[in-house]
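Data availability (excerpt). The following record was deposited with the supplementary files.
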Amino acid sequence: MKVCILSDSHDRGPLMASAVAAAIDDGAETVIHCGDIIGGNTLRASLALGLPIHAVHGNNLGDPVSIARMACNSQGLLHYHGHDATINLGGRRIYLTHYPHLGHGMACTGDYDLVCCGHSHETEIRQQANVRGGHTWLVNPGTVAGLGAPAATWIFGDLETLTFEIRVLEPASTAIGRAANHDFSAPAQPASGTSAKVLEAAAQAECG
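Predicted structure:
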């Protein structure tokens, strides 16, 4: 199973949707969000793309009540786990948290194949030695919003092979500007791939 791992979207819904759409193009089946979503509207365009989203909240809670309500009405697409989560995907046991120090500690237990965290806005992919004598993958996708970081980033992961790759999005101003200037009513050449998915999801989210 291939997954899109991201974090710290901080209300930048179009950028999050761009990452999810790019991951779909490469065969991703699930999204993991490591917190700091802020408002529920951040998730609308990504949910419109149709992949399940597993999310925890971070230190910037925003509106957890509205996000929980969205989860209840998402037909099983949005799984809003709260402070942290243990999930099973693709035969792998995965722990989600917002905080790197908690991620480090849980990776050291050896109870998980993969630990995902966020918060620092700094990307990291490494194998952490654990108390069982093995190693656990510990990944931090940075910030998909690109705030306080050199770039907007996310991680594409393959759970079968346990391989992970940091991906970089285009500058936020470019993506948001294109979305703001797009005329959904005008006949135009059909977009394809990632662009088509993001524009369609943005339109659905706007109407939702």
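Summary of structural features: The domain at 2-82+141-207 is CATH 3.60.21.10 (Purple Acid Phosphatase; chain A, domain 2).
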